[in-house]
Amino acid sequence: MKFASIALLSVSTLLFACSNEANNIAPLALKDIQKQWQLTSIDGKTLETESTLSIDEQAKASGNLGCNNFFGVVELDTNKVRIDKMGSTRKMCEPQVNDIEMSVSSTLSNWSEVSIKDQQLLLTGDKHTLTYSLK
Question: What is the pLDDT of residues 53-99, one digit of tens each?
Fold first, then answer.
């Protein structure tokens, strides 16, 4: 019985270590996302939009949602990001552009998974995935 317990514990430890190693993603630092980005797609649909995102050395974010400008403070926790205390201008926008703004605004202001792949910034929120390219 003692041997079976030790064997089970060893196998469990080995499986746990392997699963963590496979899922171990290096956390991003502010310097990794501290660039000027251009929105290129939402949920995989390519866009031609004025929407941008700039992040500076003091973790301040600014840019354009599509029609309105925005600003706020970047919070980064492991591989999750959000823009806290986000504010924006309030111009009237075309309905299609307004839809883009709402998707971008909600994704940026709530915690989203963040990753960088092939010089693209991917933000995956509860409802949308935003893809930005270096500007």
Answer: 999 999 999 999 999 999 999 999 989 999 999 999 999 999 999 99
Name the nearest CA neighbour of 89 among 125, 60, 63: 63
Give me the DSSP letters along 27-52: PP-HHHH-SEEEEEEETTEE-----E
112: phi > 0 → left, psi -120 to 50 → alpha, else beta; which? beta
Global pTM? 0.79
pLDDT (tens digit per residue) in 95-123: 999 999 999 999 999 999 999 999 999 99
The CA distance from 104 to 98, in Å, is: 10
Q: Kind of pairing, strands 69-77 and 60-64? A: antiparallel
Rounded CA-CA distance 30/75 in Å is 9
Which residue type occupies 37?
A: W
